[in-house]
C-alpha cells in the first residue's frame, strides 16, 4: 500500500484486485480528517492508518461509508472514528451484523443465492475462517437521507446519496474546495441482483448528477487511476451509445453489435460485449 496525494489536502490508496480491496481516501482538513470507506478487513484499515501516521497526520475523526458491500465496511471495527452512512446503508449493516462470516455460513449463502461467489472467494483470500469469526459489523453513529456536510476546517465534505444500479444506498463524497469526488462503486453495474445489469433509468441520472459537480477528479472504488472530468464525460457518452443501440434492437443481438460497431467506428472488444449484455439484462 502506498499513500498518494492528488490535491493539497486529499490522499488516497489504490485498490488491490487480488483481495478486492477498494480505494481508500483521506480528506485532511485543518481541524479534522475524514476517511472515505473503511476497507475490507481490520488489517486493511490499520495499514491505512499507519500510512497516515507516516505523514504525521492525526487519526481520522470521521469515516464515510459509500455503501454496504463487505469490502467497504469490514475494516470499520478497527477504526476509532464516527461512522457516517446513508440510512439504507445503516439498515443493511444492521442485517449483516446478525450474520456469520465463517466458511460454512458463506458457502450456504452462496448456494442459497443470497451471497455472491466472487465476494465469498475474496473474503476467504483476505481473511481466514478464524479471522472472519471475529468480524463485528459496526453500525454507523450518523445516518442521513439525502446529504450530510462536514466542516473539516478549511474544507467541507459533502456526503451525497446518489443510488444507482450497483447499490441503492450508494453515496459519494464531494470536496468542492479541492474539486474531487470519491465515487465508491456508484458507477458500476448491479451485482447482487441477478443477472448483472445496467438500467438507463438509474445509471444516466446518476452520471448527469456527477457531471453537474464539474469536479477535476473522480476516484472510483476499484480503479487504480483517478478519472478526469473529460473521461467521465466520455464514459457517459459511451454508455449512452450502447444503451441506445440495445434499446433500438432489444431482440436482435447481431443488429445491436452492428449498430454499436458503426457508432464507435471500430471493431467491438470484450468490454463492449459485456456492456451490451448488462444493458440487455437491464431490460
Short recap of the structure:
This protein is of the alpha/beta class and 283 residues long. 39% of the residues lie in helices and 20% in strands.
The major sheet is characterized as: 7 strands, mixed
- The count of strands amounts to 13
N-C termini distance: 40 Å
Order of helices and strands: EEEEHEHEHHHHEEEEEHEEHHH
Q: What do we call the CATH homologous superfamily of the largest domain?
A: Ribonuclease Z/Hydroxyacylglutathione hydrolase-like
For this structure, the CATH topology of the largest domain is: Metallo-beta-lactamase, Chain A
- Uncertain parts: none
Number of domains: 2
Mean pLDDT: 97
**How would you classify the helix and strand content by structural class?**
alpha/beta
CATH uppermost class of the largest domain = Alpha Beta
Q: Strand order, main sheet: write it out.
A: 1-2-3-4-5-6-7
The helix fraction, in percent, is 25-40%
Shape from CA axes?
Answer: globular
Total helices: the number is: 10
* Proportion of residues in extended strands: 15-25%
CATH architecture of the largest domain: 4-Layer Sandwich
Radius of gyration: 19 Å
Amino acid at each position: 500500500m502506498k499513500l498518494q496525494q492528488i490535491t493539497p489536502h486529499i490522499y488516497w490508496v489504490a485498490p488491490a484486485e487480488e483481495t478486492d480491496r477498494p480505494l481508500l481516501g483521506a480528506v485532511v482538513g485543518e481541524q479534522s480528517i475524514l476517511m472515505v470507506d473503511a476497507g475490507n478487513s481490520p488489517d486493511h484499515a490499520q495499514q491505512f492508518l499507519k500510512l497516515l501516521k507516516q505523514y504525521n497526520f492525526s487519526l481520522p475523526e470521521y469515516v464515510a461509508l459509500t455503501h454496504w458491500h463487505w469490502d467497504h465496511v469490514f475494516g470499520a471495527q478497527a477504526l476509532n472514528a464516527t461512522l457516517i452512512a446513508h440510512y439504507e446503508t445503516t439498515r443493511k449493516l444492521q442485517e449483516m451484523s446478525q450474520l456469520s462470516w465463517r466458511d460454512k455460513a458463506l458457502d450456504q449463502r452462496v448456494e442459497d443465492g443470497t451471497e455472491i461467489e466472487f465476494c465469498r472467494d475474496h473474503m476467504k483470500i483476505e481473511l481466514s475462517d478464524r479471522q472472519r469469526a471475529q468480524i463485528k459489523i459496526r453500525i454507523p453513529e450518523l445516518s442521513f437521507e439525502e446529504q450530510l456536510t462536514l466542516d473539516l476546517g478549511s474544507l467541507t465534505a459533502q456526503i451525497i446519496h446518489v443510488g444507482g444500479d450497483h447499490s441503492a444506498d450508494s453515496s459519494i463524497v464531494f470536496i468542492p474546495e479541492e474539486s474531487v469526488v470519491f465515487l465508491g462503486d456508484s458507477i458500476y453495474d448491479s451485482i447482487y441482483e441477478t443477472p448483472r445489469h445496467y438500467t438507463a433509468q438509474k445509471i444516466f441520472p446518476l452520471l448527469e448528477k456527477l457531471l453537474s459537480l464539474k469536479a477535476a477528479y473522480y476516484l472510483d472504488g476499484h480503479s487504480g487511476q483517478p478519472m478526469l472530468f473529460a473521461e467521465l464525460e466520455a464514459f457517459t457518452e459511451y454508455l449512452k451509445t450502447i444503451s441506445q443501440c440495445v434499446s433500438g434492437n432489444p431482440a436482435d443481438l447481431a443488429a445491436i453489435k452492428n449498430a454499436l460497431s458503426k457508432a464507435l467506428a471500430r471493431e467491438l472488444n470484450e468490454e463492449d460485449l459485456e456492456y451490451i449484455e448488462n444493458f440487455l439484462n437491464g431490460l
